[in-house]
Amino acid sequence: MQTRPIEILLSEQQLTGIQNQIYSKVSEAVEQSSQSKTWMKQSDLPKYLPISDNTIREHLKDLPFHVVGGTKFYNKNEVDQFLLTK
To answer: Which is nearest to 74 in space by CA: 47, 49, 42, 46?
Structure first.
């Protein structure tokens, strides 16, 4: 049996409210992290982006990273720029 996606209808006001909340949370997270280190490991991303590791893996697969000695490193500025252009 195949399931169908759930559709949610929002008014323009509701959609704008949700967009403003998301923007506020992302801006807050960016501000809080501006004093943090420039380079992060994958385990640091959920704290930086305030979303779960699973969400990052599923929805941000093309997040830019650099490999050093077999370890993925994410540049804070590149992550910010990536999210702003999504």
So the answer is: 42
d(C-alpha 67, C-alpha 84), whole Å: 23
CA 80, 54, 63 angle in degrees (round to 5)? Answer: 30
Quick count: other Cβ atoms within 10 Å of Cβ 21?
10
Strand arrangement of the beta sheet that strand 71-75 belongs to? 39-40, 71-75, 66-68
Residue 34 has what pLDDT?
Answer: 61
Q: Which residues contact 48 (CB under 8 A, 6 or more apart)?
A: 29, 33, 36, 40, 76, 79
Beta strands in 1-86 (DSSP E): 39-40, 66-68, 71-75
List pLDDT tens digits, range 47-65. Answer: 999 999 999 989 998 999 9
Domains and CATH numbers, the chain: 36-86 (1.10.10)
**How much helix, strand and coil, in percent to the nearest 5, is found in the chain?**
55, 10, 35
